[in-house]
Amino acid sequence: MKKLTAVLLALVLLSGCAAVPGEVTEPLSQPSQPSLSETSAETSSETSAETSSGISAETPSVSLPEGAGLISLSSYTVRPGGYIVVTAQGAGGAFGFSDMFGVEREMTQTESGVYVCLVPVRASCEPGDYPLTIEGGGLSFYGVVTVEPRVFEQQTITFDDTVVAETINSKEANAEYYNKINALKYESVPEKLWEGGFVLPLRTKYTLSSSFGLLRTYIYTDGKKSDRHMGLDMAVTEGTPVYASNSGKVLFAGFLQLTGNTVLIEHGYGLKTWYYHMSEIYVSAGDMVEKERQIGAVGSTGFSTGPHLHFAASVNDINIDPEILLSAEPAL
């Protein structure tokens, strides 16, 4: 009888610690560098049942990975353009790990003592199962993350030859973007700066002219170029106010030949939002901005065919679908 009681007690304890959750174009003249398409730039996302991180709302019916009680994932399934949140409780200190795509990541401690890391999934990521092993801070974890299929739309746009020559086909424009922006992609504030959910940067009706992940072809007299559009193009009247999607630190505010009047905001833990082609800018690099503060006005500067706001989101250098970010606050 004592042995039976001990076995039952052990099963109860085990069940109690196993709860888990559920690419605008970059320097085309520098092919060895990551394209803006896959980092921080400009294009209707599919409608599907997703959570705030582009994750399937359905919890996979699989056995819980060893160590899930201490290191856990927000989900084990995710779609291209989404992200997962890795959390670690009871870690003995900060530590790094290689994510399921071989990218080095760092766990950062929050005010509550929990360590967190946002792991983005590129829009171009092939569907399949990706093993993830994490060891550090006295903890260990092994699991398999499933990237689900996602089909993106295609779009063809005709551009004025002069605009093309001064932007995407200009070595100077591409070099300027790379030199001023590339390092900022990796600049991360080790604390949560955002407050609540992210909001649309426009308060008026707009037309979504290009969606995230769109496979775009640009046509002009001397040829054509193709890339993946890594944001939302929100067509609206020039001069329309543009607001910060959430609180954060302005890392860049200025004119770039490629993207026009541009603002980049870091919201903490590498989570960023980008605002392109504006006619005016009302903030400066280094400013701490509050959620919904006006940061500029809609325009058509840089590589653009007409007044619109290109709104993008990224985790450091990898873009995520802004509509996913807008759908719910990241769960830390």
Overview of the structural elements:
- Helix content is 11%, strand content 34%.
- It is mostly beta strands.
- The chain folds into 2 domains: 130 residues, no CATH class; 174 residues, Glucose Permease (Domain IIA) (Distorted Sandwich).
- Strands 11, 14, 16, 17, 18, 20, 22 and 23 form an 8-stranded antiparallel sheet that branches.
- A hairpin with a 3-residue loop joins strand 16 and strand 17.
- The longest helix is centred in the first third of the chain and has 15 residues.
- 44% of the residues are buried.
Q: Strands, helices and their partners?
A:
Blueprint: H1 2-16, E1 71-73, E2 77-78, E3 83-88, E4 96-98, E5 104-106, E6 108-109, E7 115-120, E8 128-136, E9 139-147, E10 154-158, H2 161-166, H3 171-181, E11 207-210, E12 215-220, E13 223-228, E14 232-235, E15 241-243, E16 248-256, E17 260-266, E18 271-278, E19 280-281, E20 288-289, E21 294-297, E22 308-315, E23 318-320, H4 322-327
